[in-house]
Automatic annotation (TrEMBL):
One of its GO terms (cellular component) is membrane. This is G-protein coupled receptors family 1 profile domain-containing protein. Residues 1-122 form the G-protein coupled receptors family 1 profile domain. Signal peptide: none annotated. The chain crosses the membrane at residues 14-38, 59-83, 103-125. It comes from Adineta steineri. Its main location: membrane.
């Protein structure tokens, strides 16, 4: 069963890119961030320590920023992919084809940064996360690397494998 090109274009244009890649992830991420924001607003009424409330507000701010950046990085990719599926550029026009490929490379790079950006968002917005990263990188990883790679052994160990060179030991073994 080989689907026709028309069916594949229709599927990509009306379902795959707009719904599965674009709308559904954005709606799910936005709804959960709104639920988190709503939950943090109700935490003020509960009797929780101030530090806990502060941390909850901080994580909610990070989630909201994550969703905003997610939307900004996904929408250009989805709109460009729908455009290229419906209006493909022919290879017979080399300049237009090269421009199309350049735009595709730039937008795909922007879309891929979506998967890397979490670390940088958390570093920017969370002092606690910065402290944890510093602890892990400097105190744990750096010390381990320093020990494994730059270990200079300055100790002198006695060599217990010295065998005497007497001719008597050889003659005693023959007896």
């Amino acid at each position: 069963c080989v689907p026709s090109t028309y069916v594949a274009v229709q599927y990509s244009t009306f379902f795959f890119y707009p719904i599965l890649v674009g709308f559904l992830p954005i709606v799910i991420a936005s709804s959960f961030s709104i639920l988190a924001y709503h939950n943090v607003r109700h935490i003020v009424r509960r009797q929780l320590p101030i530090v806990r409330r502060k941390l909850d507000k901080q994580i909610t701010a990070m989630v909201l920023m994550r969703v905003i950046i997610f939307v900004c990085l996904v929408l250009p990719y989805v709109t460009y992919r729908i455009y290229t599926v419906n209006f493909p550029t022919s290879r017979s026009m080399p300049m237009a084809y090269a421009i199309s490929r350049l735009i595709q490379a730039i937008i795909t790079s922007i879309y891929i940064t979506n998967f890397v950006i979490n670390f940088y968002i958390f570093i920017i917005f969370s002092p606690r996360f910065r402290r944890q990263v510093k602890l892990v990188l400097v105190k744990k990883c750096w010390q381990r690397w320093k020990y494994l790679c730059c270990c200079i052994n300055n100790r002198i160990d006695p060599n217990n494998n010295i065998q005497p060179r007497n001719s008597q030991t050889g003659s005693e073994e023959n007896i």
